[in-house]
Known about the structure:
Elements: H1 4-12, H2 19-31, H3 36-49, H4 53-65, E1 80-84, H5 92-102, E2 107-111, H6 121-125, H7 137-147, E3 149-153, H8 160-170, H9 178-190, E4 196-203, H10 212-228, E5 233-239, E6 247-248, H11 250-261, H12 267-283, H13 290-302, H14 305-316, H15 322-325, E7 335-340, E8 345-350, H16 352-364, E9 378-381, E10 388-389, E11 394-400, H17 403-416, E12 417-419, E13 429-434, E14 437-440
Parallel strand pairs: 1-4, 2-3, 4-5
Antiparallel strand pairs: 5-13, 6-9, 7-11, 8-10, 8-12, 9-11, 13-14
Helix pairs in contact: 1-3, 2-4, 4-9, 5-11, 5-12, 5-14, 9-10, 12-13, 16-17
The chain binds uracil (URA).
Uracil binds next to helix 9.
Amino acid sequence: MKVPVRLIEAKRNGEVLEPADLRAFLEGYLAGAVEEYQMASFLMAVLFRGLDARELDVFVTTMLGSGASLDLSYLGAPRIDKHSTGGVGDKVSLVLAPLVAELGVYVPMMSGRGLGHTGGTLDKLEAIPGFRTDLSLERFHEVLRSVGCVMIGQTADIAPLDRRLYDLRSVTGTVPSIPLIAASIMSKKLAEGLTGLVLDVKVGSGAFLGDPTQALELARTMVAIGETRGVPTEAYLTAMDRPLGAAVGNALETAEAFECLAGGGPGELRELVVHLAAAMLRLGGDTRSEAGLRGVAAACLDDGRALRRMERLVDAQGGDPAVVAAPDRLPRAPVRRVIRADREGTVAAILPRPLGEAVVAMGGGRSRLGDDVDPAVGFRVRTRVGASVRAGEVLAEVHAADDVAAEAGAHAIRTAVRFGEDAEALPLVSHRVTASGVEPVPGPTETL
Length: 448
Ligand code: URA
């Protein structure tokens, strides 16, 4: 292996690295021959200089090859997953996995922890008392076979290099890079033995790559990686200029996901869940019309089947299934503060990033490698973009560990909720990206 500092310098200077050198550097990190600080520095160089197509291919191949790839063909049915590029209040995976499994498609889902200012599915799941995301491979197969879905993290067995890089990027400001995000997501997904993949690529100020042009490039990059490696992949550009739903913070989001599974919850969360569920079913070979697919997904939320499937999943992964129907059993923060509008006006924006950053600062995410997270802290936003509010009306609740953190949370709400004349919101789902190109997605045609 080349001396690590030479590779860091070469990338810093904008050189294209030799595949063998790059592979040895990445493998050296996993083996302990490259230090954390060297990898952090290298990742920052990649963030500024990028990777060309061949370097990206080495990244994906090495990350994928750092662990096992699953062969799930014995299931004899479609295996479809969904992955989001990361947002604030994005609890979609917790609803989608049991919902789509209930509709006959296997969902072997490998997720991440909170990354930067965004929340992570694993942290949300671990808010459920007893829930285990670190299953052995044997148990992974058992749960998938019996429940139809399973939700785990990158492990020592699958995509361990992503697990290390993901944690490091989260605390070193090296997340917002198209090749690093694409390699991270696609290496995990390609290891899952899927027959199809749906990607939720966030656009707007709360996304890692908020600018639509960059989000589109990220979507195209990931679709190309999936298709080249034999996994039919499609991506949707979805709004992250506001939090998704009302809850931000692990246990609060988990509770909101359960509400959605029970047929309720915020309209935008349900709308996105139904949209992505239809996409997963279609990729799984279901030939019903778009309206038909949306209808079966919505009905499955409304008649309690998705909720019961979630109870089975929670039980199978060691959690307390009673919390699914009784989310008030989830961890609760000792301090709650209600934040009210200090004037009358129209809510022009609810900025997601200050809320996501505040959750991390309040202990609900990680500032350093290995930090524990407090599942109970966060926000429930009680207003929405475009609402006319009166002075004194409730804007949000802050859930915090103590009064000092609650004050910081209150400040975040006042920063995030903007008053003004022109309320503008991105369409919830704007574009679909497939191997054949990019097409606009029309707005919802029916009320679900
Ligand atoms: N999700 C991932 O798995 N990796 C990223 O880099 C961003 C979002």
